[in-house]
Each structure stands twice: as C-alpha cells, then as structure tokens.
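Continuing from the previous page of notes. For each protein in this section, the sequence appears first, followed by its structure tokens. Read the first protein now.
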Amino acid sequence: MADWGPVIIAVILFVLLTPGLLFQLPGNGRVVEFCNMQTSGVSILVHTIIYFGLIVIFLIAIGVHVYIG
C-alpha cells in the first residue's frame, strides 16, 4: 500500500498558497490582498516560507498518512 498523505497535502497546500489566487501576502497596495491574480517576488518568497512551514507541520510533526488500495 502506498502512502498518499504527503502527495495530497502538498497538492492542496500548493493550490491554496499560490500567490494571488486566494490571497497575496504582502499585497501590491495593502498588506493582504484577496483574489487579485497578481504576484511579486516578495510575495512568492513569503508564500514559499509559509508553504514550507505548513508542510513540515503536517508531514513531520503531525504525521498525516493516507493509504489507498
């Protein structure tokens, strides 16, 4: 049986933390902007750090496992 937990968590977080899709931190005109579909280098860096932190929490600290099959 394969462990699909890391794959599912990584894909969900990648989609949700895409800069400009749901929110952008920092925004172009404000600290946080919602659904503006634009991005910047600083925003990509901030979202990458948030993504890495959440991946570490879910996969290493909590240990999410999903077995299919």
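Done with the first. The second protein uses the same format. Note its length before scrolling.
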Amino acid sequence: MGPQKDPKKASYGNGSVTRTTTTSRKEKVVRYKECRRNHAANIGGYAVDGCTEFMASGEEGTTEAFICAACNCHRSFHKRVVEAEIETEADTDCDCSSISTSTR
C-alpha cells in the first residue's frame, strides 16, 4: 500500500464532515442588495425603507448575522443577487457525524 493521505476535517453547525475524495464543483458568490420589506403592508400601502445593501449586525455563525445593521430587517427581505460561480473542490464521500431524527 502507498502512503495514506490525511483527510481534511471540517466542522459545521449541523455536524462535521471528513473529506476523503474530492472533485470539482461550482459554488455561488451571493450578495444581498436593497431591502424589499413593505413597511406599510398592514395598512394596505407600499413603502420601503431605502436600505440599499445588507450589512450583517453580528459575526458569521451567530443569529445576529441574519439581521441587517442598516434597516434592522432579516436578510430574507433583501434582494438576493448571484454575482459569480467559482470552481471549488467538493466532497464525494463523507463521514457525517450528525444525528438523524427520522425513522424508517
């Protein structure tokens, strides 16, 4: 047998993944632009706040990262724009350590 490659270990909020084999795949670079939240919906009107770009309130990985610092709206109210697709290495075989709650 030849020399063994040391698998890369990545940790995610829903578990960790051990990469053993990689291939290339495309990942999207996404930005969130102007806020589209209708602040006058409850009175039957239409009014937006004028926020032109999403700015996260907190650090990546926290719940505050989904709230805009400029308009205090959730990120889902902002227009999603895919700017580019980047070729990256992707997992084809993984050892996921997350616990499944589904029953068979």
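What the second structure shows: The first strand starts at residue 8 and ends at 12. The two ends are 39 Å apart (CA to CA). We return to this in next week's lecture.
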